[in-house]
Amino acid sequence: MTHPPNPLVAGVSSLYDLLVWIGNHLQSPILLFMRIVWGGQLIQAGVGKLMHIDKPIGYFTDLHIPFPVENAWLVASTETFGGLFLALGLLSRLTCLPLIINFIVAYITTEQEGLKDLLNFDTGKFTADAAFPFLATAVVVLIFGPGAFSLDYLISRRRSKAWKSAGL
Q1: CB contact at 8 A, 39 and 151
Q2: What pLDDT digit, counting tens, does each position of 12-37 carry?
Q3: How far apart are CA 96 and CA 74, in angstroms?
Q4: Which of 95, 89, 109, 110 lies closest to 34, judged by CA?
Q5: Which residues, 6+ apart, have CB-to-CB distance to 46 below 8 Å?
Q6: Are 7 and 124 in contact (CB under 8 A)?
């Protein structure tokens, strides 16, 4: 790429290119950080629910959620194994789908005020909810993938080599 003749424009262009290069190289470490932090928290929350399953069952019963026993087990398992897969970067995009559904249902059942405010572009209650960082992480990983520091990446590299060696 040729730089413009104006030195100021050339300098800004070079700085912008540097910023893009740095940003591109920080994507995988940031995705790894998000996956480990929030995946680890999900594992803890899920295991806590599994160890004391009577508490989420009682809570779901109080909220009049249908099939509270089954839903408590489903939520606890989704958080435990979804958090594990998210942290490892294994089946990441597929794992994010049930996690996103889980947290959307959590918002619908417990945070109607936050959802109403969100429709009026008031994000305070929505983002203050404990489910928000988990939902945001799941959406980010669904859209951008788990990054290069993940089992998904290692598997994809291995599969590409296997496909090339098979002549495909």
Answers
A1: no
A2: 999 999 999 999 999 999 999 999 99
A3: 15
A4: 89
A5: 75, 76, 77, 78, 79, 80, 81, 82, 83
A6: no
